[in-house]
């Protein structure tokens, strides 16, 4: 009987052990499947995959998931957590005391050096959820970049802080060249928070996927606040532009990707220009099909154009946005195309709603910060330049691209409401501009 009971005990122990092992194995399979789903290649939209092989050369060996060793280096202050010393108790108010600005919240390690070595700086602005585009922008630009980011509260600051830390760990061209400025709403002042080991499982190859994973931290209240409150585009544009240290500034949005070798081409072109007063140099912008590879040159861009995989920016959505650039003339001026940047033609058919991306001296009129949200934010500034007597020259063969062929669809109600409010503001703005430059109303 004792032997039988002994065997029963052994059998029960084995059964419990097998059950425990089965449970552990099940958890292992679930975790493995979860990691597999995460490590799958993200969609091509706004990705850096076309440049991935070249990007890996800049990663200094950090091409897989960030491991304990890398995070330990961060905690030992070789790589400090980004923005850990910023104080939100101070800052610079905008004119209406709606937002606080924090200039040079984080300066690129070689930002001063690259600013001295180049004649032009790229200034750009972004919300937190679009920051993944900075990887391709910075890789293509290879020069000083001044980036203004809108932060709405604690959660977005936490996401921003960890994602910029991730970018600086993974990409030397961001760590070296990109300087960040921050704008926050008056009633959404962030506080510092810390989540241990948050970066350990993030892969340097997939910035967009990494950011989307971080964005899940935001709660529904934050998202609802963002939908109800306007995005201060013009505040951010002014903030980014004044963060540049160069004679010339190329002001863009975060999802506008420069063509290859643009900085060196502009470094060669701009000192030789004969126009030194009220001149702006337009960089043509195209939409690129997500299935295409980013064009390395104007001939490659033209091949995509002929195949229907590229077209002028906003051509189908709102043609007046870029129409005055005269893309047809730019595309036909391709015979015997020289490699260095040069003037293709002058803009002669200025349109009221024209919104080109351009390079100019850092003395152009500021973006009027009364325009908050969507509608009349960029074109109002370009309109003032036109009334002030600026000439717009279209450059070639350099260009910029935006991922995705955009389709015309109904605007959300909130966006149309903001557009209507800004339309009324523009009537006041237009009268002021005409009076300032002593021009008659047409």
UniProtKB/TrEMBL annotation:
Gene Ontology biological process: protein O-linked glycosylation via mannose
Q: Which terms in the Gene Ontology molecular function aspect does this entry carry?
A: glucuronosyltransferase activity; metal ion binding
Q: How does it sit in the membrane?
A: Single-pass type II membrane protein
Q: Which cofactor does it need?
A: Mn(2+)
Keywords on record: Glycoprotein, Glycosyltransferase, Golgi apparatus, Manganese, Membrane, Metal-binding, Signal-anchor, Transferase, Transmembrane, Transmembrane helix
Checking InterPro entries in the record gives:
B4GAT1
An example of a Pfam family matching this protein is Glyco_transf_49
Q: Which GO terms describe its cellular component?
A: Golgi membrane
Q: Does the keyword Nucleotidyltransferase apply?
A: no
Q: In which pathway does it act?
A: Protein modification; protein glycosylation
Q: Which catalysed reactions does the entry list for this protein?
A: 3-O-[beta-D-Xyl-(1->4)-Rib-ol-P-Rib-ol-P-3-beta-D-GalNAc-(1->3)-beta-D-GlcNAc-(1->4)-(O-6-P-alpha-D-Man)]-Thr-[protein] + UDP-alpha-D-glucuronate = 3-O-[beta-D-GlcA-(1->3)-beta-D-Xyl-(1->4)-Rib-ol-P-Rib-ol-P-3-beta-D-GalNAc-(1->3)-beta-D-GlcNAc-(1->4)-(O-6-P-alpha-D-Man)]-Thr-[protein] + UDP + H(+)
Organism domain of life: Eukaryota
Give its localization: Golgi apparatus membrane
Transferase as a keyword of this entry, yes or no, is yes
Q: Where are the transmembrane segments?
A: 12-30, 385-405
| Protein family | Belongs to the glycosyltransferase 49 family.
Specify the protein name.
Beta-1,4-glucuronyltransferase 1
């Amino acid at each position: 009987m004792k032997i039988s009971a002994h065997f029963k005990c052994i059998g029960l122990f084995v059964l419990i052990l097998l059950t425990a092992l089965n449970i552990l194995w099940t958890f292992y399979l679930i975790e493995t499947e979860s990691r597999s789903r995460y490590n799958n290649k993200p969609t091509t939209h706004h990705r850096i995959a076309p440049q991935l092989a070249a990007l890996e050369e800049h990663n200094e060996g950090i091409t897989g998931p960030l491991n304990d060793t890398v995070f330990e280096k961060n905690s030992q202050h070789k790589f400090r957590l980004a923005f850990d010393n910023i104080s939100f108790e101070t800052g610079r108010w905008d004119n209406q005391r709606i937002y606080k600005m924090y200039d040079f919240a984080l300066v690129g390690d070689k930002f001063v050096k690259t600013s001295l070595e180049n004649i032009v700086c790229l200034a750009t602005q972004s919300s937190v959820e679009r920051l993944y585009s900075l990887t391709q922008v910075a890789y293509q630009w290879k020069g000083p970049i001044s980036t203004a980011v809108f932060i709405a509260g604690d959660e977005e600051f936490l996401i921003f802080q960890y994602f910029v830390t991730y970018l600086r760990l993974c990409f030397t061209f961001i760590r070296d060249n990109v300087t960040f400025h921050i704008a926050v709403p008056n009633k959404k002042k962030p506080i510092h928070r810390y989540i241990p080991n948050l970066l350990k499982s993030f892969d340097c190859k997939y910035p967009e996927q990494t950011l989307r994973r971080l964005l899940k931290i935001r709660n529904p209240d934050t998202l609802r606040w963002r939908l109800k409150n306007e995005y201060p585009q013009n505040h951010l544009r002014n903030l980014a532009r004044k963060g540049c240290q160069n004679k010339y500034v190329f002001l863009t949005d975060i999802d506008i990707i420069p063509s290859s070798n643009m900085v060196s081409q502009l470094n060669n072109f701009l000192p030789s220009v004969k126009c030194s007063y009220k001149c702006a140099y337009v960089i043509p912008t195209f939409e690129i099909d997500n299935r295409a590879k980013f064009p390395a040159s104007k001939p490659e861009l033209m091949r995509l154009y002929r195949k229907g995989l590229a077209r002028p920016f906003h051509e189908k959505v709102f043609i007046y946005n870029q129409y005055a650039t005269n893309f047809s003339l730019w595309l036909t001026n391709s015979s015997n195309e020289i490699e260095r940047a040069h003037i293709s033609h002058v803009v002669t058919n200025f349109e009221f709603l024209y919104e080109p991306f351009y390079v100019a001296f850092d003395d152009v009129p500021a973006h009027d910060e009364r325009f908050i949200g969507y509608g009349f934010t960029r074109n109002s500034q370009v309109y003032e330049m036109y009334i002030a007597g600026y000439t717009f020259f279209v450059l070639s063969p350099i260009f910029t691209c935006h991922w995705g062929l955009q389709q015309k669809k109904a605007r959300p109600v909130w966006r149309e409401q903001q557009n209507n409010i800004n339309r009324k503001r523009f009537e006041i703005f237009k009268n002021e501009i005409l009076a300032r430059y002593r021009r008659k109303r047409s």
